[in-house]
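hiii so my PI (J.) wants the whole complex modelled not just the main chain, which honestly fair. so below is everything: two entries, each one labled with what it is. i double checked the lines twice but i was tired so who knows lol
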Amino acid sequence: MLKGKVHKYGANVDTDAIIPACYLSISEPAELAKHSMEAIDKDFVKKVKRGDIIMATTNFGCGSSREHAPLAIKAAGISCIIAKSFARIFFRNSINIGLPLLECAEAVDKTKAGDTLEVDLAKGKIKNLTRKKEFKANPYPDFMAALVSAGGLVEYTKKRLVRRKA
Amino acid sequence: MTLAEKIMAAHANKKRVKPGDFINVRVDLVMANDITAPIAIKEFQRIGVKRVFDRNKVVMVPDHFVPNKDVASAEQAKLMREFALKQKIVYFEVGQMGIEHVLLPEQGLVLPGDLVIGADSHTCTYGALGAFATGMGSTDIAAAMATGDIWMKVPPTMKLIYHGTPGEWVSGKDLILYTIGQIGVDGALYSAMEFTGEAIDALSMDSRFTMANMAIEAGAKAGLFRVDNKTQLYVKPKAQRSYLVYEPDDDAEYSKVIEYDISAIEPQVTLPHSPANARPVSQAGNVEIDQVVIGSCTNGRIEDLRIAAHILKGKSVHPGVRCIVIPGSQQVYLDALAEGLLETFIRAGAVVSTPTCGPCLGGHMGVLADGERCISTTNRNFVGRMGSPKSEVYLANPAVAAASAVMGKIASPNELS
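here's the output for the full assembly
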């Protein structure tokens, strides 16, 4: 069960907003985290607490393929991102590195910045504790669920390679 | 099946695939650059295999922050170089390298019918060759380097049909900026775009690369063109292996079909801070500029430099403007030299850089300060893309960018005397 305060953004938050390219000569997540979201929310790093949740409307994470974007957000302490939709490379990258994403338009519409949410990832349940409302996110397709439960793509690939040898 | 579905099915050893299917596809080429390779190499090592699946099918190109801009980027390039040499994969050192998406087609490394993944979002550029090519992150690339395959969800395909004859100074760049202006930055989210119609048939290969390159800016997974005689003429002298040409079926199912008559379209200018803010150049307003960038994986090919040089010939860059020209590869650089284009640029007061992604992503070679404005032939104008979060980037084709360099403000080539 995840629990945290909501940091809310609009549509088309791009990867240059999440982590500007001038920091891409860094690949250490904790260092990247210091600059996460700074192009559009320079106080984010000061405000964010471990377990907090990012919420956004459509096409979150559009733009570059930089895995530094979900790495920075995750290392900043964000426990999950809830949006109406995600850009596809960002979606893959987040699942691959173990940053959970949920798609739920209703939760986004009915939640305000600063609200406290409780998220049950396994059941896809989102509870807004501030407003005493509950929402159901779109479930992962079976294949993605297997990838998530394996612990991300590296672990999943390790298992595949073992099976291939057997 | 659509063109995308045909290529995906063939690489999954399946007779049929449909949108939404999760499949495992064999990859013909896996690519990473100096920004994405370091993380991919670390994850590859975590997977625990000693060798990449096929050293001829893994390519690494240092292009984003090279020649190295600082110690940190030098360390990243070094890590990649050492991995590449140890694994004996395909690697292009400074002196041979170019911007990856200009370089790989030029070297014949991507061919029609291929399935290519790259740790760079503009990997979709190779769709111009009738290949299925898509960008992924570093961990996906690590997994594919280890196994030679990768999971994919089959995307729905949108068909975009372009009718008519392009007007003066209108190129592939304008068609794609116009299209993104119409459908939005998530207008093709998760979809494959199939570009077709008589206006597409008439486009040069360089213009097709430009269009496919920006499919990602509409949220697309890939942007594909059918192989025709122009593609064959481009590919044949470069190919060092056989390739297959796939055609969409007559009864292929498309999620959407959009038709445009492009005869009346003007050159486009896309305003900050979204690639969807396209306007006809005549409606861009009175916008003074500080910098012009002509280059990138979008518009750093020889045709682009020819157009820019044609406009700048005998003219001078406006005194208030820095004009930076970046050939996309060593070959483009040499061709531009042989054709006298470089002299034209230099005499006009522009600078000519070695190939690099450089300023496009605010890396180096032309980063913007607070309040500065640039018109650029690149692909993104997000907040802070080229430097300061208080700077602005306008996107345009090379003709408009060059004309603007002379005028000191955003201008159509027709405004030059």
